[in-house]
Amino acid sequence: MVRDGKPPSSLQHHRPSQGFAVVTGASSGIGRELAKRAAAAGFDLVLAADEPRIHDVAMELQQTGSIVDAMCVDLSTTQGVDDFVHFVEDLDRPVDLLIANAGIDHGGAFVETDLSQTLAVIDTNIRGSVSLIHQIARRMGARGAGKILVTASIVSVLPGPFHATYCASKAFLDSFAQALRYEMKERGVSVTCLMPGVTETGVYQRAGMQDTWVGRSRKANAALVAKVAFEALMKGKAVAVPGLVNKIVTRLAALAPVALLAAVHAAATRPRNPARRGDTRSMTGKPADRGSS
């Protein structure tokens, strides 16, 4: 069924379940494709996103024969996380898979961006993820079983000019997932860190980064990224890095000077608009209009 006032689906085609999966950030992009993978593998699901279309995704996935519940909720807040955990608990099923994929992005020079947008990245990517994982991982550990996927990013290994808070949040998740993996292995729970590169998810449009090289560049297919991620999750691998180029980047990042890495990243994320990149003067030599978008 789909809750929050949405009509329940017919369950006459429900098949035997392979387990129960929780997927956040499932309304689009990698999260949606991961939910599709889980449903195709026979898991029943509960989905979360802060967009009403999460219910449409749930209805779509019910056609696979899985029981799918969905909640439109803001996981950047403590109340939102608590409400979602209670929603999951009300279903009275142990969580076998937790796919912690919810996240937001925001680009531009740090001092030129609105502080509320910067803090929203921290609240969603770090506070929300940690809060949800803490509550569900405790229950998995008590049962001695479960698998967790944490969506970080390839940028977690790079300093991120014009993308500073987002990159730092993903670096946190990368480190957090590796540490949690070590702690949870003795409790029978595996933790996998997903490190995708530039992927077609719509995130760059929502982050206001259309005027950057990375915003205009060719992007990986979200379905292919999800395939690599889900296979790694099910095998209990430590890290999933989709794509040869991304694998090379992770190796080079460990060897290259930090200043060089920062310069390369800046070239990809520097906005064309002088005001957004923090220039005090425009390309014409005149003072940049700080109020321009």
UniProtKB/TrEMBL annotation:
Keywords: Oxidoreductase
Domain Ketoreductase stretches: 19-201
SUPFAM superfamilies associated with the record: NAD(P)-binding Rossmann-fold domains
GO CC entries: membrane
Keyword Oxidoreductase belongs to the record: yes
InterPro entries, per database record: KR_dom, NAD(P)-bd_dom_sf, Sc_DH/Rdtase_CS, SDR_fam
Domain of life (superkingdom): Bacteria
SMART domains in alphabetical order: PKS_KR
Pfam families linked to this entry: adh_short
Gene Ontology terms, MF aspect: oxidoreductase activity
Segments of this protein annotated with the region Disordered: 269-293
Family that this chain belongs to: Belongs to the short-chain dehydrogenases/reductases (SDR) family.
PANTHER family membership: DEHYDROGENASE/REDUCTASE SDR FAMILY MEMBER 7B, SHORT-CHAIN DEHYDROGENASE-RELATED
Protein name as it appears in the record: Putative oxidoreductase protein
Source organism: Agrobacterium tumefaciens str. Kerr 14
Lineage, top ranks: Bacteria, Pseudomonadati, Pseudomonadota, Alphaproteobacteria, Hyphomicrobiales
